Amino acid sequence: MCVATYFKKGNLLKLKWFWPQHEPVITSLVEELGLGTFVQHTDGAILLEQSQSDPIQRRVLPEGAVERSVRLKGGVQSLIDAVAATLPHGTVELDTCVTEIRMDEEGTITLEADLADGEKKRIRTGTVILALPPRIVAHHIAFTPSLSDKLMTSLMDKPTWMAGQAKAVAIYNRPFWREDGLSGQVMSWSGPLQEIHDATPDTGYGALFGFFGIPAKSRQKLGEERVLKLVADQLIRLFGPSAEKPISLLYKDWSSDPETAVDDDTTPLRTFPDYGRPTSTSVWDKKVIFAGTETSSEHGGHLEGALRSAERAAFEVLDLYKMHL
């Protein structure tokens, strides 16, 4: 079945929201780019599921109990496209995977990259900004000379945000739960989804999405077909017969994505990670600058954290070039 452009799998699975009252950088960027936003739907009762045998509890939260968050019209892809459009043509090279970074005695850096057609490419530069998650850098890029043990440990100690998670999205003809006075928000102790939210766009279809309480290794053992059957059963328990036949049921498990997760990421996070800049006291200091949301001491894991780390990295490079003028 053909579904509206907004519901392309990538757009829904990259669904993001932000909080203008707490996150000024992403808020300013969205305004600068002229992107449309709308308030995340939270009106109505939330559902609490203690177990599959207990009755579903329905609660109306006091006004102001849920902080207002905002979503982008067209999903986060609209932000990606708008930022990319500001860059000079040819700046972004797709299907180019950096596998090795070498530095010679004069301090010149050479990047070795694999291209999609099997060819290799070399890029020479003076400084590199790495926006990859720290653990992906440690696992997938070779350095000559090698990174210090202290720096490697620092990289590995920063879990990639949500890398061990998975998301399911159910798409419907309309957000029927709103007609029943429900917000679409659910907290469940029986699962498989432990947290569900309304993912409906500002116009058109309805959608619900949820994060899993099942650990990554258990999901992988069950397999996608069985996981989605459990999700479908849970949505029917929670929202009734209207939830039985979604237009589409999408699933993405980032723990199985080698470009997102490493083995360590399958261990569930018990507390929020201690993010911040990787500790660097090696020959690579000021030659490799780490960016990405996991390197932001504030708002790590959020779009806000990614933008703050990008600003920091850009200022570091500008300072380096001033030193050499």
From TrEMBL:
Highest taxon in the source lineage: Bacteria
Residue span, Amine oxidase domain: 65-318
Record InterPro entries: Amino_oxidase, FAD/NAD-bd_sf, Flavin_MAO
UniProt similarity note: Belongs to the flavin monoamine oxidase family.
PANTHER family noted in UniProt: AMINE OXIDASE, AMINE OXIDASE [FLAVIN-CONTAINING] B
Species for this entry: Lentibacillus juripiscarius
Name this polypeptide is given: Flavin monoamine oxidase family protein
Pfam families, alphabetized: Amino_oxidase
